[in-house]
Amino acid sequence: GENVEQHPSTLSVQEGDSAVIKCTYSDSASNYFPWYKQELGKRPQLIIDIRSNVGEKKDQRIAVTLNKTAKHFSLHITETQPEDSAVYFCAASDDSGTYKYIFGTGTRLKVLA
Amino acid sequence: ETGVTQTPRHLVMGMTNKKSLKCEQHLGHNAMYWYKQSAKKPLELMFVYSLEERVENNSVPSRFSPECPNSSHLFLHLHTLQPEDSALYLCASSQGQGGETQYFGPGTRLLVL
Questions:
Q1: Nearest residue of B to residue A98 by CA position?
Q2: Can you say whether residue B99 is alpha, beta or left, with left for phi > 0 and alpha for psi between -120 and 50 degrees?
Q3: Distance of alpha carbon B44 from alpha carbon B36, whole angstroms
Q4: A100–B contact, CB cutoff 8 A
Q5: What pLDDT, on a 0 to 100 scale, did the predictor assign at position B55?
Q6: Does pLDDT of B108 surpass 80?
Q7: How many CB atoms neighbour CB A113 within 10 A?
Q8: Which terminus of chain B is more solvent-facing, meaning fewer CB atoms within 10 Å of its CB: N or C?
Q9: What digits encode the pLDDT tens for the residues B51-76?
Q10: Nearest residue of B to residue A33 by CA position?
């Protein structure tokens, strides 16, 4: 069945460094790719998303890139801060009429002060 | 945040108990979802309702029974659960089908003894 692989499962970076989290999807029909941030004890919250008609999207220190051919998409966080520490989930979905969201297994990011 | 609310936030139940989880969305969305979140696993989609009609049921055991009386409310009725059902149960809503952003509730942390 369809799946989304996410790497790494844990990531530690020094404050101010960049962090990159990568996801690979299997369903070629996927055309919507959101990223969620889940802080400890809190709900997942959308931080950025990208649709298949663009290759990159940026919002301040956060960016997402998409390679449709390779079925890869990545989250890039620059100038990391301690408050970026959380679990990040990628997901893949499509707008063909299904309600299917496939989530990755999550990456626990620790930003060390 | 008050977009998607869930009650109770924490629940401890024995294997012979019957309990219900409640979700309410105040966003005017027409699709609602139940997810199970277990440690080190991807979010598992359990049920999807669109306009109060169940559209997805991902091979969930019958001890979980969903109910959607209207587009703003979603319930998950629990009975004769197993210890392995202990997890965080997240509700989400979206405007329409896949390819739309999902908004999550804070979750119910369930412990089955």
A1: B98
A2: left
A3: 5
A4: yes
A5: 80
A6: yes
A7: 8
A8: C
A9: 878 887 778 999 999 999 999 999 99
A10: B99
